[in-house]
Amino acid sequence: MSETPVSWATRRQHRRHETLIQWALFFCAALSVLTTAAIILVLLSNAVYAPGDKTAFFEKVSLWEFLTGTHWKPSDGPGGKYGIWPLLSGTFLVAIVAAAVSIPAGLGAAIYMSEYANPKEREWIKPVLEVLAGIPSVVFGFFALKFITPVVLKPLFQFLGADIAVFNSLSAGIVVGIMVTPLIASLSEDVIRSVPRSLREAAYALGSTRFDVSAKVVVPAALSGILASFLLAFSRAIGETMAVAIAAGGNPVFTLNPLRGAQTMTGFMVHASTGDSAADSIPRMSMYAVGITLFVITLIINLISGWILRRYREVYQ
Amino acid sequence: MPAITSAMSVPPSVPGVDRNLDTSRHASAIDVRNMNFYYGEHQVLFDISLMVPERSVTALIGPSGCGKSTFLRTLNRMNDLVEGSRSTGVCLVEGQNIMDPAVDVVLLRKHVGMVFQKSTPFPKSIFENVAYGPRVSGEKNRAVLADLVESCLRKAALWDEVKDRLNTSAMALSGGQQQRLCIARTLATNPRIILMDEPASALDPASTDRIENLIGELCANYTIVIVTHNMQQASRVSHQTAFFFKGRLVEVGPTMKIFTSPSEKQTEDYITGRFG
Ligand SMILES: Nc1ncnc2c1ncn2[C@@H]1O[C@H](COP(=O)(O)OP(=O)(O)OP(=O)(O)O)[C@@H](O)[C@H]1O
Ligand SMILES: [Mg+2]
């Protein structure tokens, strides 16, 4: 048999094809990077330093007042107060209530799905959770306002001798908790499922009950992944807007009482961007400062959870 | 047919193992009668009857896929974890039929411990790994646990290597150390019977040696059933050897007899390496 010489030209063509794909993919990646950069730029140019004759928010209000003030009364006149704390307290109050609801529910669902449920049960639990995740946020808002507060919470607190406002952060937190439960459940289930089967068998072979295996071996082995899912859900809860705005109202008060109304950072931003004050007025510009704050908070939480996840992967690879 | 076998030169046994043990004179720790086992519709064990004498080592040998692991895992009902598996027959463990659905498998598995081929330390400290079994049984007293951990690590010949780092992660131990840790962890549940599924197949010769000697020591107090692909190992560590082939128990007898003058042609072919 004689050897056919390799045609180098076809190889070149093949390469050109590859290059094209590579560029297309690069463009996709670049697009999301550019978008992020553009968003940051918009936030900074309105909050910190505005080019031209516009004045940025922090050129009118001191950073000190913004970070330490406990009153949030955006107005153009001299009475305007821009202390971020009422918005922070509102945001975190809702997020903490949401965490208290979603962490046990989500983790419980995840453990149930991976350790207890038979394949048939899993077949319907997953879709139900996905439906839950697909319900629009507005619907949850009205659910809180029209059902959870008047039908569930009001009688309950009346019985306990306390009064709950029509708009309150408790109901908002509860629905946000319900909203992020599927997120925790599915992320946690993934990490729980990735715990090697051999580890479970070893635990069963030592005379563990199903609960021992779940609580003492599987969950600890997946702990960092589970924590990361909590943090991601927490940052989702912080960013949640519509449901909270409807259920908790729009009154920025500095309080840690979940029975009262509150305004969150996102709630204020929607309010400000749809309000009727002029585009370059301070109330309008304050939105960007709040936006940056929110951005930084979520970024930090996401970084921490990414770091935890990376550490987790190292254990089993 | 007289043994024209040059069967194999049988290596010396590890200390503590008598390969000419007359099993009929021993009380039985495990007595399996007419066991059949199915994964779904697929039958993998056919009419197995086998007696395991107390405080001895029984080696299970046979080609890959012949059902050794499956058989071993029926002895502590680990196969319950496999969806759709079922079995028939009787398996008496110290007189009680463990195939009975009413049996509490959690208690059974404390009584019949298991060591796997792949070492499976929990991602916890060395101490917590060994203390796991007693803890799930409700032992909380730290001093009792500490004593137990030490004695089990000593029995598993690991104490001297780890006594200064009991609180460091078990994942950092070498493969051989991890396997001995798993043995210690099993001993800590205070079992009477220990099942081992190719416990040394992933280990280097030195670690394998240690495990084999350990088996020789442990069989003074525990009944051991070990699956192995290593003929030399089976002949070194066991009193009794059982040869499985295609889901059937072909032959069982004192190890010396199985390795020098087996009654069945299939057994002879297998141990002399004429087929795999
Ligand atoms: N979980 C399972 N589901 C279905 N079939 C299985 C399962 N585990 C094992 N089997 C089948 O049962 C038969 C016996 O398997 P088993 O693992 O008991 O063999 P083995 O003798 O231990 O083999 P090896 O020496 O390779 O470990 C094989 O045909 C295998 O494919
Ligand atoms: Mg096997």
Summarize the structure.
The complex is a heterodimer of chains A (317) and B (276). With 317 residues, chain A is an all-alpha fold. Chain A has 2 domains: 8-47; 81-316, MetI-like fold.
Question: How are the SSEs ordered, and which strands pair?
Answer:
The complex is a heterodimer of chains A (317) and B (276).
Chain A: H1 8-47, H2 63-68, E1 72-73, E2 81-82, H3 85-116, H4 119-134, H5 137-160, H6 169-193, H7 197-205, H8 210-221, H9 223-239, H10 242-248, H11 265-274, H12 282-316
Antiparallel strand pairs in A: 1-2
Helix pairs in contact in A: 1-12, 3-6, 3-9, 4-6, 5-6, 5-10, 6-9, 6-10, 7-8, 9-12, 11-12
Chain B: E1 28-39, E2 42-53, E3 57-61, H1 68-74, E4 85-93, E5 96-97, H2 105-111, E6 112-115, H3 126-136, H4 142-155, H5 159-162, H6 175-187, E7 193-197, H7 205-218, E8 223-227, H8 231-237, E9 240-245, E10 248-254, H9 255-260, H10 265-271
Parallel strand pairs in B: 3-8, 3-9, 6-7, 7-8
Antiparallel strand pairs in B: 1-2, 1-4, 4-5, 9-10
